[in-house]
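Q: I have 355 residues here and want to know how they pack in 3D. Can you give me a structure?
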Amino acid sequence: MFTSMTFRVYMTHPIFDPETARLMAAQFKFTTPRPIARVLEQVRGVSRQAAAAQVRRWVQAGLLEEEGNTRPKQFRLTVFERFEQSFPLNDFDEHVVWSTTLRPVIAKYASDVAMKIWDYGATEMLNNAKDHSQGSCVRVRIGITGAYATLIISDDGEGIFKRIARLCELPDERLSILELAKGKLTTDRTRHSGEGIFFTSRAVDQYQIQSGDLIFDHTDRHDDTFIDAQDHNPGTTVVLRLCHATERTMRSVFDAYTTEDDDEGLSRFNKTVIPVRLARFGTESVVSRSQAQRLLARIDQFQAVILDFDQVDSIGQGFADEIFRVFKQQHPEVDVKVRNASDDVQYMIRRVRGN
């Protein structure tokens, strides 16, 4: 249980212009120091002297800070505003907390487009902590740089992967991450659609869930993955990061994974992309029918499914047969496509299909 409560907000700070904010958000995506002057030379086609002068101006403005004494000089984004506060989950109202306490911290810097993403993602994640964590307290931290805001939501509950594995009767908590990657997963169907985590993870630039010994990670333009955490994380911690000047919109995120019902004119969440590598543990090969069945669980809820074979060099005949012959015969209404399939993977798929 969280026992401390702090509240820290500093003065509004100047930020990068929109184009530079997007550049910096991409360059400092993983927070490691970068030789940013060299990037400016390459991306903007300026001289070494002009790039170095610009970096010095950003340092003087407090937007960048030098890291170490290496050559070329390395820099990181300055975190110039921090916020932290804990809230009891008893009678917690995520909309009130977000709109009155948390939203104003980010809204001083983020564009209207970015704030629409924050409004959706932050309230969804806060609501998950209230309805699903079975914890007593939630701690919220915000960090602001000149390029992006980071929101961290931590609860002291059971832990999301443990909860999903328990309620969905999964044999391993790592399979919880595979289910989250598919979307439409909820442990309380009467109150939740199972869309919050899926769409939030794809709306922000970086999304991460840390719980127990596992980390679920989705970074924009990268596929979902799981990581064995170096430290044990009690409860659940969700990390969201978004560029102040993002060009992504919530509408574009919804449109990428929804289809329109011709009869009712309503958009429905009927498309998904599933990283096949999440069906395996560690370095095991993707060969068996049981692995295919892990992958296929619940995908009959979708109309269109893309199986992404990135980082999967080959598959077994049983695995391929279960998906591309058996499942297809049982569920002809589900359109299953593949991408990033190697020659060996394509060969096995053609073999079981008989063409």
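Q: Anything worth noting?
A: The chain has a mean pLDDT of 87. The first strand starts at residue 64 and ends at 67.
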